[in-house]
Structures are given as structure tokens and as C-alpha cells.
Amino acid sequence: MSKNTKIALAGAAIAKRERKERENHASDESNKKGNLMRAIFGIFPLLVIPVALYNLLALGFGGAVETIDASGQIVRATSAPILGLLNGEFMGLPMISGVDWVLTKGDAILLLAIVFLFLEILKSTSTGTSTIVNHAISMILFIVCLIQFLLLPNFATSTFFILMSMTLLDVLAGVVVTIVSARRDFGVAGDI
After folding, report:
1. C-alpha pair distances (Å), 115 with each of 94, 146, 150, 172
2. Report field, pTM of the whole predicted structure over 0.70
3. Of all helices (H) and strands (E), which one includes residue 89?
4. In sequence order, what are the beta bridge partners of 144?
5. Angle, helix 129-151 to helix 48-61, in steps of 10 degrees
6. Are 114 and 165 in contact, with CB atoms under 8 Å apart?
7. 176: helix, strand or coil
8. Per-residue pLDDT tens over the stretch 88-137
9. Domain extent listing, the chain
């Protein structure tokens, strides 16, 4: 083998090793980003999304509790001013029976919350540290919802009550499922 051939082979081997190191480094960075996103997804309770959506609607478009009538008198509403917005049509579909099926904005928020509650229960089957933090944040979310329901007029609706109940179910189901999963893992690891 000539000297030039040996140099070329050595150069090719070095280039191959450097390319492999770059690929390993790139995959390590993508794994770090993936692990970070997985940790954030594990910690972040998904029911925050419909609660934040309701808060946006209630605080931004809910209307005033007290208004002034034509005679100049202050009139206090007996129901939440946001009810008009929540009961507004979000989507309607004609049915075979001849009537229209109407999905209201409040119903759409609850439908979204049901999907997220299902995903939260699926997430609670893991027993990692992020799951415990998720349960703690879910408890804080429930407490915030309870305070809003009791104190703020635009939150005294059936839609928000059901949403608040879902946050409570998320906390309870998450803790119970985590305890059962941990007990099962402990039993399997201890050969019980």
C-alpha cells in the first residue's frame, strides 16, 4: 500500500469519526430538548387550558354586574353577565331528524375540558417526580377555580362549576391512580 493511500484512508477514518461524533452530539441535544418538553408536558396540568380560556372570556367579554337603566337607577344582575356569551352558538349542524344540533360556546369549553381530563388521567399512571408536581399544580388550579367560583360573578355559572369539578376530579383521580400504580410497582419490585 502506498503512502498516499494510507494517508487517504486515515483521513477518511478521521472524517467518519468526526461525522459520527457530530451526529451523536446532535442526537444528545435533541434528546435533551425532548426530555425537557416531556418534563414540561408532565408537570403542566392540561386543564389549565380550558380554565384559562374561560378566564379570558369572563374577564375580557363578560360584561358588568351592575348597569344603569333608563331612569338612572343602578340595576344589579341576578345572574352572571357572561351567560349570554356562553349560551351563544359556537357551531350548528343540521341533523337527519330535521332539527339543528347547536353546540354553545360553554359546551365547547366543556368538551375541550373532557378531552384534557382524559389525557390528565392517562398522564397520572406514571409514578415520576413530575407527576407529583403535576398533582400539586392541579390542586392549586382547583383552589383558584373554587375561589373564582365563590367570589367572582362571571364565574358563577354551570359551565364553570362543571369545569371546576373536573379540576377536582383531576386531582382526586390523579392521586388515586398514582398511589395504585406505585403500590403495583412496589409489589412487583418486591416480588409480592
Report:
1. 24, 21, 26, 17
2. yes
3. strand 89-94
4. none
5. 30
6. no
7. helix
8. 999 999 999 999 999 999 999 999 999 999 998 888 877 677 788 888 99
9. 1-30, 45-189
